[in-house]
Amino acid sequence: MAQYSAEVDGVFVALADPTRRRVIRRLGRGPASVGELAEEFPITLPSFLKHVRTLESNGLIRTVKVGRVRTCVLNRERLALVDDWLAEQRRTWEGRTDRLERFVIDEEESL
C-alpha cells in the first residue's frame, strides 16, 4: 500500500503543474516529439525538458529517442491510478453521506 501511495503522490505532483497537464492532454491525442510539444509553450527548451523529465520520472509518459528526435507517448495505465484513487475516495464519502442520511431520516421518523 505504501508503494501504491508513493506512486499516486508522484502522479499528483506531476499533474499539479498546468504545463504538464497540457502536455498530458496533448498526448491524449497521440504521440508527439518533444519539439512539437515545446512549440505550444512560451518557455525555453531546457525548461520544457524539466517538465518532460518530471512526467517521465513519475511514469505518466514514456519517451523513445530515434536519431535526434525524442518522441513522447502517454502511459494511460499510470494515469488510471488517479481514477482508482478518486473512485476509492468517492466510495468512502458516499458511504459516509449515506449513513448520515439514514441517521437524519431515522431521527425525523422517531419524532
Automatic annotation (TrEMBL):
<dbReference type="InterPro" id="IPR001845">
    <property type="entry name" value="HTH_ArsR_DNA-bd_dom"/>
</dbReference>
<dbReference type="GO" id="GO:0003677">
    <property type="term" value="F:DNA binding"/>
</dbReference>
<dbReference type="InterPro" id="IPR036390">
    <property type="entry name" value="WH_DNA-bd_sf"/>
</dbReference>
<dbReference type="InterPro" id="IPR036388">
    <property type="entry name" value="WH-like_DNA-bd_sf"/>
</dbReference>
<dbReference type="Pfam" id="PF12840">
    <property type="entry name" value="HTH_20"/>
</dbReference>
<keyword id="KW-0238">DNA-binding</keyword>
<protein>
    <submittedName>
        <fullName>DNA-binding transcriptional ArsR family regulator</fullName>
    </submittedName>
</protein>
<feature type="domain" description="HTH arsR-type">
    <location>
        <begin position="1"/>
        <end position="94"/>
    </location>
</feature>
<dbReference type="InterPro" id="IPR011991">
    <property type="entry name" value="ArsR-like_HTH"/>
</dbReference>
